[in-house]
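User: ok so my PI wants both of these folded by tonight, can you help

Assistant: No problem, let's get them done. Here's the first:
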Amino acid sequence: MTALLTIIIVIFVAVAIWQMVKIFDLAQVGTTNTQVADDQDNKINGYLMMGFLVFIYVITILCFWYIGDLPLMSNAASEHGSEVDNLMIISMVVIFVVQTITQFLLHYFAFKYKGEKGKKAFFYADNNTLEFIWTIIPVIVLAGLIIYGLFTWNDIMNVDEDEDPMVIELYAQQFSWKARYSGGDNVLGKANVRLIDIDRANVLGVDEEDPNAQDDVIVSELHLPVGQPVVFKMRSQDVLHSAYMPHFRAQMNCVPGMVTQFAFTPTVTTEDMRQNPDIVKKVKNINDLRQERKAEIEESGQELLYEFDYLLLCNKICGTSHYNMQMKIIVETQEEFDAWMKEQTTFPNSLN
């Protein structure tokens, strides 16, 4: 596939250079342009248009087949993930159908009505019926997608308090994440950037006097119990970040000076996802590539073999080390989560 793309790029570069040479020749002062298109030229251009149409279809299919990460659609790890995937699939099908039809019409008519000596173009002034059809169809399709998207979004964002969701804060700063659990009372203590005290290791600016903060737990690795609804409260210390958890189909901006929110219920543990055939194949491909760079990787001090983990990423270009801003997420059973939580230190005890 890489070789094919390389050949295509080389062809495009050659065509571009050829066109630039022609433009340069035409721009010479004192020369006469004798390059008037005749029927043969128009015929060639007509066939080239049809050839380019075939090229568009072929390259689109190849991109879907070799590059498109469609298997990701089967790896949703949250309750609402399948709804988001359905919306994406429907949108892609609509785009593909529209692109196929419109590109065919564009290139076919360019071929059919190419310039020919003695042939006069037919001027079609107006047709209210056609204009109504090609206006109302996009309106109906787009309205359907928007309404479906709004219902999906409302289902995601309207948290059912009867389910007693766990409350966790995600705190973003250049270039790392922190997670703060709300503890036994399931209420986060108050926090403000003005209360940040590096000397006392209060890096999140949590109010030390707030009773609700006394059982909060601050960690650098996010653990979630499977099947437990979770509400994430998100803050940013410095610039605009975006909390992105791809396998949970979750993303929300972290805005300085305000608290944003997103909720989901994890449905697949980390261990179960590692057994997913698509994930197994992906991990194998990555490790095969890493074996080819074994010496370089070992020299850099990184682990040679890759193992799948859910990740919290920053999906905004937030600075020079944006690429490295990520946090490991572990989805586990309730028993494993409770055992891990017992090992953690509460906020007051973590201060210097």
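One down. Here's the second:
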Amino acid sequence: MDTLETGLTRAAVWRGDRIDIVEVPIPAPGSGEMVVRVRLATVCGSDLHTVSGRRQAPCPSVLGHESVGEVVAVGADAPARVGDRVVWSVTVTCGECDRCVRGLTAKCRRIRKVGHEAYDSEWALSGGYAEHIVLPLGTAVVVVPETLDDSVAAPAACATATVMAAVERAGDLSGRRVLIGGAGMLGTTAAAVCAHRGAHVLIADPKRARLGQAMSFGALPDDGENVDVVLDFTGATQFIGESLPRLEIAGTLVLAGSVTPGPLLGIDPQQVVRQWWTITGIHNYEPRHLREAIRFLSRTVDRHPWPQLVTDPVPLALIESALQPAPGCKLRVAIAP
């Protein structure tokens, strides 16, 4: 029976020590809101950190913030139409605070986040590990072209869009040597983006299999020489500390992986001054980065083996088995609610 006819859907509710599959009422969408049937969700590393206790998050909640789905109901002035296949932003923003007005919606003062809200709040269906999700007003939505498989489109909502934000902070990459820290989903994606923008791309990762896979996305193994840009997706202070002295004059270090507390990084301010270094960071992303992510994937869908990075999907009933590190060279586990 169609869930919309019954007014119920199924969601995986994380309760700290277990995950329960429960039936949840589907609310009628309000102004600017949409109800989306989730076609595929991929498991981001931050959700693995949440369920393992390494990351603080509201509990109980419906996790999942990398998803693609089909719009099945809309309120007035919604950003997409019924029948559209879409991806959506991690952040839900007010559009009115001083940060939003400045174009820093990623740090909205009243921010809410997909897959990071309490289940017992007014936004119960807030995550992608469910048959349906409600997208409130303030969610950026991008229609997905037919050329992109669900497995390629879903990671755009977090991994690919975050890479776009990080690469933007690095500036013009044409002809520059770029070192990427980490050959996970973000690092491998970053290799493809940087190569597409004309960079000579190096990548470092302790897992040789992942390094080999990154070669299919435009990277070469790190050669230990100096570079113009370092993009860090590891969050490892050791890697950051070892790569910083390799920056050329006017080089740039972009930090994107340091999202949990770790050892402090020792930096000599004199060296930063004399070398004209730029050290910057990004967290979350802007709506333009999500649009850029889908455009980039569309342009490179025949150039790189994107589907190989994602596992075959498991059903929602087996979600606990999916909330584990991806096997082998796979970088994302997929769930098909």
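The CA atoms of residues 152 and 306 lie 6 Å apart. The chain is about 25% helix and 25% strand. Good luck tonight!
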